[in-house]
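Async update (no meeting this week)

Hi team, since we skipped the sync, here's where things stand on the single-chain job. The sequence we agreed to prioritize is pasted below, unchanged from the tracker. I ran it this morning and attached the output directly underneath so nobody has to dig for it. Comments welcome in thread, and please keep replies under the output.
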Amino acid sequence: MLHYQRLLAWGLALLLPEAILAQEKPSGIKVDRDRKAVIIDAKIAPRKLADPKFKGEIYPIEVIATWAYPKGQKAHETVVTIEVKPSEVHKALESLGGRAGKPVRGDTTDRPSGTEINIYLEIPSDTGSRKVSIDRLLIDPRTGKTMPKVKWFFTGSVLSQPDPNKDEKVYGADLTGTLIAVFPVTNETVLQSSLSMKEEKYLKLETNKKLLPAEGTAVKLVLELDGK
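Output:
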């Protein structure tokens, strides 16, 4: 009996760290090492928000993924909403060998840097799911043309100081909820495209309703390291 108890205690000691890690693992995100990809639970975002401050208007797409309204500061300009913390996505990309570079903000000649990332949505279909690159899911409504091919960079977020009276700084994207920015309208994000504010002035993007499912549909946001 004593021998059995010792074996049981030894077995629990081995299993306990794994159980603790499982509890600490954030929900809504998966690291696929074979694909060198981070897969995130997401939902197709509403393009019109009911809050009167938006005046019933539909705003051009400026980000790909952020928290839902009201937590997400760019929830009125996004393709999908997520629940995971942006900093957890940062950690997941690093665990696959991704290297954060530097984000940019505003009308600048500087360019974002970092490991290049391919971005897709896995959308439910009759045969299971279909994988569509993010550029195909955005169009210029005036011309019907899809978004031009761009590069996406794992920039990482700037650190921000939420309380000006305290020295404490936090991962900026965890304040805004922004995960992926199309234009450099914010540097509190994890990924940015190669587009500048110069393009933002004339490239007004809308979601491609022919390819995207209904608002609220659960999808997978896939961030895949380029050159795997």
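Quick observations from my side:
Residues 1-23 have pLDDT under 50 and may be disordered.
Residues 2-24 form the longest helix (23 residues).
Reply here if anything looks off.
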